[in-house]
Amino acid sequence: MTTQKPTWIPLLVLIAVAVLALFTTSVPGVMPTEGLDTGDTAWMIVASGLVLLMTPGLAYFYGGMVNHKNVISTMLQSFIAMGVISVIWIVFGFSLAFGDSLGGWIGDPRTFFMFNNVFDHKLSLGSTDQLKFTIPFALFAFFQMKFAVITPALISGALAERINFRAFVLFMVLFCVVVYAPLAHWTWHPDGFLFNLGVLDFAGGTVVHMSAGWAALAGALYLRRRKSHIESNILPPANIPYVLLGTGLLWFGWFGFNAGSAVGANGLAVTAFATTHVAAAAAGLSWILFDVTRGKKVSALGFCIGAVVGLVAITPASGFVTVPVAIFIGVVAAIVSNIAAHWRASSNLDDTLDVFPCHGLGGMVGMLMTGIFATSAVNAAVAENGLFYGETALFFKHLLALAIVSAFAFGLSYILLIVTDKIIPLRVNEEEERLGLDISQHDESLAE
């Protein structure tokens, strides 16, 4: 059993938050009921649960792909996000993302500090009440929490098998506050600057997948290569059935992710539900068939990765495009990500589980496809149709947003990695890497 120097700091921080909660909690007023729809509310409760299910799904998806010495640590990095990010979201994370806008760049952390003013908040958001709800505002806040939870968990796949667990938790906290919350505010708050620019992101291609993908690339570059990667001694995946199970949970949960972003049980939710499924199916097939053209066998791992890429790519477009277009998006995204993953495997870039090729590039493909294929015939909120329909403005706005978000997410993530490394060393030492993170970080192991 390995030993670790004890520290009181994390526990004291949590106790301080708990005590602060007692002194900042006010008795909520009467929850608004006029305009509420019970069907919409019921669906959004289910959708919120589905989105949370995606994080355990991601744990199985990633856990099955790493080697047997790192399964528990890799899976725990997803599960710990459910604890850490949920608490941060209550304290000030939701305020940073959806509080009163400070110039379109960030929310005022005082607006919903400690979730005050959430349960009795009016059923609208924005300086002129642009975004109106038929569900309790608190339910919207918890739905959005689940997006904040899974985003930093996605990053862990690029850092697997060499990241210090405590350092990862600190980085996750900093990423949520400095990168995720501003992007959510820019994109989804009615006063956010990308929202007002006219950029469309139905369910998180920009906010979730591009941000996680660029952070993953920054992490892979900063942490450098695993010893096994340098020696070309990569161990096989620990458990392919885990990957299949994780894919199933992700696919199922993604219906809440995308269809839930309609924020109601309506026709738009049905469209998002349909495009989500079709894109995943087409992308899974596209990935394995593209492998076949290179002489590879059809693999369970290939279909699973392809399906997830399709889910990623359709996410920003799911409520803006037609179902046939979703097939095209899935096929193209899978081929692009497959090519990128194949190139990465032959390079010196050690993105352990290809987070950037799959989530980063998948999110970018989806963002551009939204600028090409979005149409007001699907969603009346589309003010400018996509390039495919003869209009250019939306596409060029998406190009601009892609450049801004990419620079912001990559640059700040790299800086946060440096800051984290100064506080807690990011990378485990060579002996800990050899033993595996399950033993060296947690004194637990997966029975073979």
Automatic annotation (TrEMBL):
**Keyword match Transmembrane:** yes
SUPFAM superfamilies noted in UniProt: Ammonium transporter (SSF111352)
Keyword set for this entry? Ammonia transport, Membrane, Transmembrane, Transmembrane helix, Transport
Entry membrane topology: Multi-pass membrane protein
Location(s) in or outside the cell: Cell membrane; Membrane
Q: Which residues are listed as membrane-spanning? A: 42-63, 75-98, 133-155, 167-188, 194-222, 234-255, 267-290, 297-314, 320-341, 361-383, 395-419
Ammonium transporter AmtB-like domain location, by residue?
Answer: 42-445
PANTHER family attached to this UniProt entry: AMMONIUM TRANSPORTER MEP2 (PTHR43029:SF10)
Q: Tell me which family the UniProt entry assigns to this protein.
A: Belongs to the ammonia transporter channel (TC 1.A.11.2) family.
Q: What is the name listed in the Swiss-Prot or TrEMBL entry for this protein? A: Ammonium transporter
